[in-house]
């Protein structure tokens, strides 16, 4: 009698590659937001193909191009900017999130010299501590953004001014106060004024960057010895009040929370603290994935895989630090597709993020 054992000659089998359908590819595109060069459509053909063929979810606008050290990048005047935004949206099947860092004061992309209204810093508003004053400046900012067609402001900063010498927050007057109730009060006003004009806001930088002594644009930041749970109070308060459209993570380490990864790449921070403990169910966006704190320490694919599996919904690639990459949108989308195909990121994670993003866009 001959015993035949089926398949004994085949050897070890390769794991199945997950099929990524056109529908899933389109969903993956929505998870990517990129920066680009150009003040008009004629200059920005690659961003158009990213919108048209990759279905990217958004763009981020800057007035200064860091890699070349030159202006203008995307912004030169109100009429130019409103035309650029309208042209970008005309190529998008799903409306784009058009984002900008328009905090006021030092972090101000829409400068008076280009024909935009004056601004003041959050620190100034916190020191004045008058609700009507904050409402005036926030309302003026939101009106300007609405007129330009910009539908997402990466503000307000809800970091506490724990360390006034912090090189990325305190030194640039970006925090309302070291007092969490003052931060919550003025952030809420800021958000409501933007909502009145149909502009989304994004609180940042979770779980708190205000105590840091170094800048995550340049290198890894460790707040283990300086951070306190008090820095979470604005998140609890604003989320409980239903005022949070979007939250941005910081590239900071706190070894007491996660001994291995910074917040942007950390399941403990995002799924554990922000989603479960604080109860936030909305869109979470990364800070720029090309900052030194991420780019210098983690590979492109590893950083993307860690961020998405930790709970990030939208990845920002500003294309405005280090070397400019005209193919960054394609590189990012293809990386996510590959990670899904290899089973590193479950399709269910893509579906979750897509559903959150589309719910947010439906509110516009």
Question: Can you offer a commentary on this structure?
Answer:
- With 364 residues, the chain is of the alpha/beta class.
- The protein has a single domain, classed as TIM Barrel, CATH 3.20.20.
- It is 38% helix and 11% strand.
- The chain is built from 12 helices and 13 strands.
- Helix 1 crosses helix 12 (347-362), helix 6 packs parallel to helix 7 and helix 10 (300-310) packs across helix 11.
- It is globular.
- The chain starts with 21 loop residues before the first helix and ends with a helix.
Mean pLDDT rating: 94
Our estimate of the beta-strand percent is: 5-15%
Instruction: State the total count of DSSP E strands.
Output: 13
Low-confidence parts lasting 5 or more residues at pLDDT below 50? 1-13
The succession of helices and strands, N to C, reads HEHEHEEEHHEHEEEHEEHEHHEHH
Rg computed from alpha carbons, rounded to a whole number of angstroms: 21 Å
Number of domains: 1
CATH superfamily: Glycoside hydrolase, family 3, N-terminal domain
Share in helix = 25-40%
Strand order across the largest sheet: 7-6-3-2-1-13
**How large is the count of helical segments?**
12
Structural class: alpha/beta
| CATH fold-level assignment | TIM Barrel
| CATH level-two architecture | Alpha-Beta Barrel
Large-scale geometry: globular
CATH class: Alpha Beta
Distance N to C terminus = 74 Å
Largest sheet: 6 strands, parallel
């Amino acid at each position: 009698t001959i015993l035949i054992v089926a398949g004994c000659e085949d050897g070890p089998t390769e794991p199945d590659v997950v099929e990524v359908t056109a529908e899933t590819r389109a969903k993956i595109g929505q998870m990517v937001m990129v920066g680009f060069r150009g003040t008009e459509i004629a200059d920005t053909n690659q961003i158009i193909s990213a919108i048209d063929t990759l279905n990217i979810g958004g763009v981020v606008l800057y007035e200064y191009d860091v890699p070349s050290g030159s202006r203008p990048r995307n912004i030169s005047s109100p009429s130019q900017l409103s035309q650029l935004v309208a042209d970008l949206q005309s190529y998008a099947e799903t409306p784009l999130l058009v984002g900008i860092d328009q905090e006021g004061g030092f972090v101000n992309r829409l400068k008076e010299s280009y024909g935009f209204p004056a601004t003041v810093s959050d620190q100034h508003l916190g020191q004045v501590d008058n609700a009507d004053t904050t409402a005036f400046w926030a309302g003026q900012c939101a009106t300007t953004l609405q007129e330009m067609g910009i539908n997402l402001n990466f503000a307000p900063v809800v970091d506490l001014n724990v360390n006034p010498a912090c090189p990325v927050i305190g030194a640039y007057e970006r925090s309302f106060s070291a007092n969490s109730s003052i931060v919550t009060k003025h952030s809420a006003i800021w958000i409501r004024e933007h909502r009145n004009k149909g502009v989304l806001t994004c609180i940042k930088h979770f779980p708190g960057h205000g105590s840091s002594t170094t800048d995550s644009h340049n290198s890894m930041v460790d707040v283990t010895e300086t951070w306190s749970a008090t820095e979470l109070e604005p998140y609890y308060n604003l989320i409980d009040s239903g005022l949070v459209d979007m939250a941005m993570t910081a590239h900071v380490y706190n070894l007491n929370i996660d001994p291995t990864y910074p917040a942007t790449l950390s399941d403990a921070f995002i799924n554990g603290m922000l989603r479960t403990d604080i109860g936030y169910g909305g869109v979470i966006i990364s800070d720029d994935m090309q900052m030194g704190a991420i780019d210098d320490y983690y590979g492109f694919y590893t950083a993307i895989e860690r961020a998405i599996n930790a709970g990030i919904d939208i990845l920002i690639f500003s294309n405005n630090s280090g070397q400019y990459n005209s193919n960054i949108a394609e590189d990012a989308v293809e990386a996510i597709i590959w990670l899904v195909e290899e089973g590193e990121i479950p399709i269910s994670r893509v579906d979750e993020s897509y559903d959150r993003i589309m719910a947010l866009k439906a509110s516009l």
